[in-house]
Known about the structure:
The complex is a heterodimer.
Chain A: E1 2-14, E2 17-23, E3 36-40, E4 51-54, E5 57-61, E6 71-79, H1 83-89, E7 96-103, E8 114-121, H2 128-135, E9 141-147, H3 156-161, E10 165-170, E11 177-178, H4 181-191, E12 195-201, H5 204-217, E13 221-224, E14 241-242, E15 253-254, E16 262-264
Chain B: E1 7-9, E2 12-14, E3 18-20, E4 42-44, E5 61-64, E6 67-70, H1 78-91, E7 97-101, H2 106-117, E8 122-128, H3 140-143, H4 145-158, E9 163-166, H5 174-183, E10 188-191, E11 195-198, E12 200-201, E13 206-207, E14 213-217, H6 222-235, E15 240-243, H7 249-257, E16 262-265, H8 268-271, H9 275-289
Parallel strand pairs in B: 3-4, 3-16, 4-7, 7-8, 8-9, 9-10, 10-15, 15-16
Antiparallel strand pairs in B: 1-2, 5-6, 6-14, 11-14, 12-13
Flavin mononucleotide binds near residues 74, 194, 243 and 246 of chain B.
Amino acid sequence: MQFKSMIISNVEVSPGYWRMRMTAPPELPAAQPGQFVMVRVNEAIDPLLRRPFGIFDVGIHTPAQTGAAPQPYLEMLYRVVGKATSMLSALHETDLLDILGPLGKGFNLGSPEEEKMIVGGGVGLAPLYLLAKELVKQSSVRLFVGGRTRDDILCITEFERLGVECYVATEDGSLGESGLVTEALIRRLAACDGKPRIFACGPHGMLNAVAGIAAQGGIPCQVSLEGYMACGMGACLGCVTPGHRHSGEAPDYRCVCADGPVFDATELKWEA
Amino acid sequence: MKPDLSVTIAGLELRNPVMTASGTFGYGEEFAEYVDLEAIGAFVTKGLSLKPRAGNPTPRIVETPGGMLNAIGLQNVGIDAFTEKKVPFLRTVATPAIANFFGNTIDEYAEMARRLDAIPEVAGLEVNISCPNVKQGGIVFGTDPRCAFEVVTACREATIKPLIVKLSPNVTDIVSMARACADAGADALSLINTLTGMAIDLDRRRPVLANITGGLSGPAVKPVALRMVWQVAQAVALPIIGIGGIMNARDALEFILVGATAVQVGTASFINPGAAQAIVAGMETWLAENGVGDVKSLIGALEI
Ligand SMILES: Cc1cc2nc3c(=O)[nH]c(=O)nc-3n(C[C@H](O)[C@H](O)[C@H](O)COP(=O)(O)OP(=O)(O)OC[C@H]3O[C@@H](n4cnc5c(N)ncnc54)[C@H](O)[C@@H]3O)c2cc1C
Ligand SMILES: Cc1cc2nc3c(=O)[nH]c(=O)nc-3n(C[C@H](O)[C@H](O)[C@H](O)COP(=O)(O)O)c2cc1C
Ligand code: FES
């Protein structure tokens, strides 16, 4: 789908991290957790390409004015890193954006008897909120969230409000445990007496570690990846990532936008 | 009255002069949700080779001011998978599909032309002679007129279908390349392919692309493309398909004015998947507003 969307709100939730709510077509709330949108930040040729963002939340917005009709919305959580994201952060209520989506393949939610473990790092939390919202309907859900400092830990109260148990770790110890959040994950996995299932999104190093932990324990694990994207729909082949059979002599590339962004961890090539 | 947008190029009758460019429109199917494929003149598939190709390591693309660099490395499914998995879709669309292809040797080029000639759903062939990995040391087919002549001659012998040759802009004399292709029996020329460029990550002191260099496309290349189309149109009698940085109807009409019979829309489809269709509509509006009844009357109508 391609649609024009009007910004409802755009607020800085933590230094450098923004949350934007905007109007969406009626079909959008059916987006699967893990899918993404491609956003055109302005009409000019700079920045030229659309930028990909995870779908943080979807729902129905009821405007404050009495009598105004409820309106489907889309939310993104984004970090300002460069040109396009700086421009996004300068936009205001009623500004318009051109959006493509929902795109890509989302998370496989698994079965109700499993204990769901969600692992997020920094802005990698973005596609995990909608996931948690779906998962709490059927299973117990735990969130393991890590960051460099307390400023990188986003939206914990929102997750807690869903009934998700949250484990926080920061590298500098400014919030939660000091160190890597994968430590807390390992401890919880050891204590888990049922069947666990892992979902992760964050920096590549973190995903690599999580995939390793899952492989060791034989635990089903899905990861949401990033790739440098031009089209978002499988046409340019710019966004690929190495698949598990990949080697220099026999390359095996998967398209992050169309085959992913969510992959089963066993499908991908990880560093040892 | 509605302006007449139809053109004939390389023996292909097109309902309008707007095509999509190879490598920017997948195999057509990817865009079916966003474009009425029957509203555009033709579409060109991703460059095909005899064997599937995996392409280059990542990062493969990076944005630059007004453009993008890509070093995809001609990743494609190969001719067998194309025939089996992609051709059935082409059958469902009443718009000519042009197959873009390349080889590592002259024999491979000829073999590809033969294989594509046998596929009824392929309306025309576009030979890419600008690929960087060929046997005779580098991009020799696309930069040496004698090699271009040989490869086009071999393809010409292998197909009776419309044969379009796509030229690389990375040459000092585009006209001599165009002449060589015309002499070898090409039916039309496409120009331009991407311009070799680089992007640098200063903080890491490294090139951004894993391949170090990549091909520049998008609005930044339009002036170069216009110049090359204009020069070739002056010197060679073959019809030309203008490509390079076309984002809207005005850009497309500029190419027609300097001598192109048709155009291809590349990078613009990434930004707006319906770009080619929007360009057709915008062209029709411009012609109507300017009292031009037939787009063919604009071909090469530049006043100097
Ligand atoms: C499927 C997917 C979902 C994403 N979801 C989110 C999200 O929910 N929230 C969020 O903050 N970010 C997300 N990203 C990353 C986001 O797309 C980039 O941060 C953004 O494109 C940077 O744009 P920029 O112009 O500000 O930065 P630029 O000035 O272009 O570049 C700054 C830095 O960002 C990196 N970058 C640029 N473009 C991309 C890209 N397309 N993909 C990855 N890295 C890029 C560059 O390598 C560079 O280091 C996602 C990326 C993908 C592929
Ligand atoms: C990602 C990408 C892949 C491309 N792949 C091919 C290809 O396989 N064969 C080819 O002849 N040209 C290929 N091209 C070149 C385009 O067809 C076109 O000539 C070029 O992008 C210039 O047009 P534009 O500025 O409108 O994009 C590719 C371009 C891009 C951006
Ligand atoms: S972004 Fe173009 S193929 Fe994935």
